[in-house]
Structures are given as structure tokens and as C-alpha cells.
Amino acid sequence: MNIELILFGAFALLTLLSAGMVIFARSPINSAMALVSTFFFLAGIYVLLWAHTVAVMQVLVYAGAIMVLFLFVIMLLNLGESPTRGRPTLARLAGGAATVGLLAVLSIAILKLPEGVADLGAGTKEQMAFGTMATMGWEIFTKWLFPFEAVSLLLLVAMVGSVVVAKSRI
Amino acid sequence: MVPITYYLLLAAALFCMGMFGVLVRRNALVVFMCVELMLNAANLTFLAFARMHGDNTGHVSAFFVIAVAAAEAAIGLAIVIAVFRSRGSVLVEDIRTMKH
Fold this sequence. Notes:
The complex is a heterodimer. By secondary structure, chain A is mainly alpha-helical. Chain A is built from seven helices and no strands. Chain A has helices at residues 3-24, 28-48, 52-77, 90-111, 125-128, 133-142, 145-166. In chain A, α1 runs antiparallel to α2 and α2 packs antiparallel against α3. Chain A starts with a helix and ends with a helix. Chain B starts with a helix and ends in a 13-residue tail after the last helix. The longest helix of chain B has 31 residues, at 57-87. Chain B is mostly helical.
């Protein structure tokens, strides 16, 4: 039992617990708070995968910016708790059954991976550098420059579009 | 050393929890949060495979997924505000104008 496995187990358990709280919390504020902690624990798992840059972006962009947007909207709309606990209708039971079925199929497919694919690799010294800010910046600004610019355009369009949609009268 | 199977199983569980929330919850904001959970599960899969192959492409994909998720959150919440202004509700059952 090495330390990496213990850390992974702890982070995975806490991630799943907070994700469950996101789904089953009564008020949207509690859901949002549970989602913030889910993002933090997932960032820990990303560090275990040597994805340091993505872990930092997870905390900055997801837990910082996107969740502030969610909390702002929840407080702007002044939503209270949901009035009634939803009864188990036919559509909900079908949704639960579909979820359990998908999870079963995915688990069986993952557990049946061949031996060579399921191996994570030893992790050499060169590989340890692959998630750093320098290598990711090099990759993005050489090979992925056009998609990067397209994403910046997409963010601009989303910004203008959200103002147009949310404003009552321009 | 953690096997990649564990990471993939965690991502599958997270995706299914997000899907369950999207199918079952009535509040549109919570539905959006569950969509974020599903996007994070996809990110986790990308990063696990990037770690397995030792290259940067999975990291770049995760970066783009985060950027698109930010755009999606901005547009989705703007739509929620607009719907709340005209209907006075954010429950997805109350919004059935286009349900035909």
C-alpha cells in the first residue's frame, strides 16, 4: 500500500461524496458549495496524474470563475429550497435505471481492458515534465494556435451573447 | 502506482452521477451543475490517457474543455435568467413551450 494509492483513494472517495451532495442537496446554494469541493478534490487527482497546469486551471477557472457565476445567479434569482421533494415518477425511475445500466456497461468495458492498455507506465524523468506550464505553453502556441484563437473568439461570442440574452431591453 | 483502471472507473462513476442529476433534478441551475460534473469526468479520462501515453495532447484537450465549459456556463445562466424573468420559475417542468 503506497502513498499514491492512499491519496487517490481519499481524493476519489471525497470527490464522489461531494458529487452526491451536488445531486441530492435540497437548496441550489448547497449544491453549488458541494460542487466547489468536488472541483478541489478533482484538482488533487489531477496532480496525482502529473497534470499540474490543468489542476491550477481547475481551481482558478472552475472553482473560481464559473462557481462565482453560479452563486451570483442563484442569489440574483433568490431561489429558496425546492418546495416538494420530487416523487418517484416513471420518468425518474427510467432515468435511474438508465444511469445504473450505463455505469454497469462502462465498468464491465473498463475492467475488461487488455493488460497492455491498463498499464499506466513507469514514468520516466522526461515524462515527468510533460504536464508543466512550459511544455503546455509550447504545445498550445505551436501546434494548437488556431484552436486556441478559435476558443478566444468563442469566449467573446459567449460574453456578448449572454449580455444580449440576459438584458431585458437593449 | 495507481492503475489507470481506477481513474477510468472514477471518471465513469462521476459521469453517471452527473447524468443521473441531469435526468432527475428539476431545478435548471442544478442541471447545469450536473453538466459540469459530466465535463469534469471527460477531463479526468483525457488526463488519465495523457498520463498513460506521456504526451501533452490530453492536457490541451482538457484545457479546451474547460474554456468551452466557461462559455457554456455564461450562455446557460443568461438563458436561465431570461426564462426566470418571463416565467418566474427555473423548474424545467414549467418550461414546455417547445415541447411538441
